[in-house]
Design goal:
By secondary structure, the chain is mainly alpha-helical. The longest helix has 22 residues. Belongs to the TsuA/YedE (TC 9.B.102) family. It is a multi-pass membrane protein.
Length: 141
């Protein structure tokens, strides 16, 4: 299984995520934890809070459309694993997010930037798990 190295698109994506995190914190005083924002959509109560959460999720979901409008080309989606494996991975990540008290955007982007020890431990766990998983999958162990 070969992975294409795309430093410029990765840099652009990282810059967009970082900018979004800074703007959300500066304008609304909120941490950009994507899973927490998504989970909050299912808790009805404060209409303004729900609207903010919906806008953030809509912004994330429309990324491919923005790419299409900017370049005239559909984004290339190469999924080297079956759909059931992606769904299972999403479920496992969801459970991990619940136990870890946050996701990679909340801990890895925002938490590390705030020098949170808890986020440093969580991000180290995320990364170690990712490295181990890729190693096991790629080497058929």
């Amino acid at each position: 299984m070969e992975t294409e190295f795309t430093p410029w698109t990765a840099l652009a994506g990282g810059a967009l995520i970082g900018s979004a995190a800074v703007l959300l914190l500066a304008v609304h005083g909120r941490i950009l934890g994507a899973t927490g924002i998504l989970g909050g959509l299912f808790r009805l109560g404060d209409a303004a809070d729900w609207t903010l959460r919906a806008a953030v999720i809509a912004g994330m979901a429309t990324g491919p459309l923005v790419h299409l409008l900017a370049t005239g080309e559909r984004p290339v989606l190469d999924q080297p694993v079956p759909t059931w494996a992606v769904a299972l991975g999403g479920l496992i990540v969801g459970v991990g997010v619940s136990y870890g008290g946050g996701c990679t955007s909340g801990h890895g982007v925002c938490g590390l930037a705030r020098l949170s020890r808890r986020s440093m431990v969580a991000t180290a766990s995320f990364m170690a798990s990712a490295v181990l998983t890729v190693f096991l999958i790629r080497h058929g162990v």
